Amino acid sequence: MTAILVIKHGALGDLVQAFGPFAAIRAHHPAARIDLLTTPLFATLMRGAPWFDRVLTDDRPPWWHLPAQAALARRLAAAGYGRVYDLQTSARSSRLLAWMRLFGARPEWSGIARGASHPHANPGRDAMHTQDRQREQLAMAGITAFPPPDLNWLQGDAARFDLPARFALLIPGAAPHRPAKRWPAAHYGALAAHLAAAGLTPVVLGTPAEAPLAATIREQCPAARDLIGQTAIADIAALARRAVLAVGNDTGPMHLIAAVGTPSLVLFSADSDPALCAPRGREVRILRVPDLRDLPPAQVIAAVAALDAPAAPPA
Asked: pTM, whole model, 2 decimals?
């Protein structure tokens, strides 16, 4: 049996962007044993995915920690992979090819590593959207069929939150080290009040560190439901399937929400470029301004009204 390794680290949004390539690799190699190398944060989640036989973890030690780098390479070399699809394509993941060769492994390699047998030989690759770039990389390695990824395995428990039939998801957070990616919580509060008046219960999702954002929203809209810190990744997918619409910043949960098909409005500032990393799904609209602090709630409310959502609230 052929053994194949797929490498993908990154944050949640990066992982979701790779669901399509994961499905394509599995469809192209139906009889192979396919392993995923990812970070410990996503190991449990990805063990439930239908695309992999095993999920391996990489603690990503610093490049100068040579014993740790050697231990990982030795482990991978011993697995006997015939081909590696490096979807991370970082300098660190690319160095793994040289490390594995030190331990006698000679896998075919799809990526940008020096000496790769199937290089992504496009000098403009960094100017491509993540999904387009990965699709082209796989095409250059012989994978040309890209079936839609089946996300039915992401089955969380939405019923335990006892939400009303009509609700909207709000994602006011983003990476804490990139505050420019956040639309002000007070503006989300104004949006929440509008949604509630239109008959949609606003439901706020995020990490425990984002609890102050939900508190600010509920000050302006007491009808909003605060689920901060209460949802696993699969729960977010389950809630997204039931939600009428979602509004959020450029952050991982919005990638997941859009991927399951929820009509979504994603807010971008100059801090990130939607041409490179925007969430994709059945109905995704992007609203971008240089500084999100200057984006008035009325403009977001108007954009929400334009979503192809079931009975989206009027502006």
From this structure: 0.94
